[in-house]
Amino acid sequence: MPSLGADMESAVLMEWHVKEGDAVKKGQIIAEVETSKGVIEIEVFEDGIVKKLLVAPETDCKVGMPLAIIASADDTMAQTEKTKQKSITKEQNLAQEERIKISPAARKRAVELGVDLNQITPIEGVIQLSQIEAVAPTKEKSADKEKFKDGMRQAIAAAMSRSNAEIPHYYLATSINMTPALEYLKELNRERNINERILPVALLVRAVVLSLKEVPQLNGFWQDSEMQLSKEIHPGIAIALRGGGLITPALVDAQEMSLDDTMHSLSELITRTRTGKLRSSEMTQQTITITNLGDLGVESVYGVIYPPQLAIVGFGAIMNKPWAEKDALCVRKVMSATLAGDHRATDGRIGALFLDKLNRYLQKPEELL
Amino acid sequence: MTKDEIKIMIIEQILEVAPDIGVDEITPDGNLQRSLEIDSFDFLKILTSMHEKTGVEVPEDDYAKVATLESMAGYFAEHLLNK
Questions:
Q1: Which domains does chain A have, with CATH numbers?
Q2: Is the reported ipTM for this assembly greater than 0.85?
Q3: How far apart are CA A264 and CA A267, in angstroms?
Q4: By Cβ atoms counted within 10 A, which residue in A8, A141, A206, B10 is the most buried?
């Protein structure tokens, strides 16, 4: 079971899309799992043949637990590797069991209610079901939807707490004159059919991607006490769900997309997020996050970095504002762009360079095509 | 097509794009984007499917004329007559 986010502990395998003996190609969807973020399609990491499916549908699987054995066509090493991994995970699980003694029913309930077992003092060395119920933050909700939202809330809580505890953020903001970009889009869209129109959000995402190509130090991860930059740019797009919660799926390989591709892929990503049909690669590969609260009229967003990423870019609403140009005061469409960076990895200078590039691109929108 | 029929069609498109919105949340004169938390992508999708159904395309310059359910229905009714 791959980790589909820093905050994920387990997921339920819902359905296999392959059977034993099938040949699979890297990137092929082989299973569907249900997580606190909805149903995710799991892609296979390598070419090979499905030797064995290790878990049955509707099994709750911990992160790291082997789901299947995939053998390379000419290489039985892969098989032994995977089996080895399996036994290691088993040992780890056993070690965990020894640390905290708890009845299976209580453990299941603790996962459902999002209770941290370390908070509870065992009675006679064992944690009881009643103790879990007593410290649970919320009462049991009967509806599945409520349970799903609770799970998502807990997942967001875990990731954001970790971010705030571990990442020393620095924050930068700049005001960008959006009049040239919006007028450019208006002209572009006037000649297009309605289903080929470009929205300002797509232009902003494209400007972020091009700026990251020039300032790559913000695109990647902080792992093992060092900065690990990513060549590919997979921006996580923060998509709010009506009625609560947030998902930030990756726009995979955005560095290869034109403006039209960016618009099309964004539109498709949003639809699949709302209908709960995301792929595992979209849940795990985010190299930076982009959040846009402009539609709700917010002026500035100061984001919280999603670990282990290095930065988050925030866009506020585009508003009519007084703007000085040469000696004259005029009214322009102005937007606040912010950057929160991980100070362990970069300093304010890098963040400032990035915001400057972003501004320059938005003043020359024809370079964003 | 009457204005009421168009209204029903618009509501159907809204619910298609945003199935989690309750029909009773849609008021005739509320700003659709603000009151229903419909973002720019959803709004464009609603206009695109209205275009597929009616053949009427709303240019960006006319977005202010289709901000509410009532005004959007009026806009499509008028443009269907002129077609």
A1: 10-99 (2.40.50.100), 104-153 (no CATH), 169-368 (3.30.559.10)
A2: yes
A3: 5
A4: A206
Flag if A201 and B40 touch (Cβ within 8 Å): yes
Q: Measured between CB atoms, which of B33, B45, B61 is closest to A295?
A: B33
Q: Which residues of chain A have pLDDT under 70?
A: 6-7, 73-101, 103-105, 108, 112, 114, 116, 118-119, 121-125, 128-130, 133-149
The shortest C-alpha distance from B2 to chain A (Å) reads 24
Q: Does B31 touch chain A (CB under 8 A)?
A: no
Give residue-wise pLDDT tens across range A231-263.
999 999 999 887 778 899 999 999 999 999 999
- B5-32 in b/e form (b: 16+ CB < 10 A) is ebbebbeebbeebbeebeeeebeeeeeb
What is the tens place of the pLDDT at every residue in B15-74? 988 888 888 889 999 999 888 888 889 999 999 999 999 999 999 889 999 999 999 999
- Nearest by CB to residue B57, choosing from A194, A199, A242, is A194
- Interchain CB distance below 8 Å, A295 and B39: yes
* Chain A residues 228-247 within an 8 A CB cutoff of chain B: 240-243
Domain B3-81 sits in CATH at: 1.10.1200.10
B5-13 own/partner pairs: CB under 8 Å, 24+ apart: B6/B54, B6/B73, B6/B76, B6/B77, B6/B80, B7/B69, B7/B70, B7/B73, B9/B50, B9/B53, B9/B54, B10/B46, B10/B50, B10/B69, B10/B72, B10/B73, B10/B76, B11/B69, B13/B46, B13/B49, B13/B50, B13/B53
- Taking the domains of chain B in order of start, what are their residue ranges? 3-81
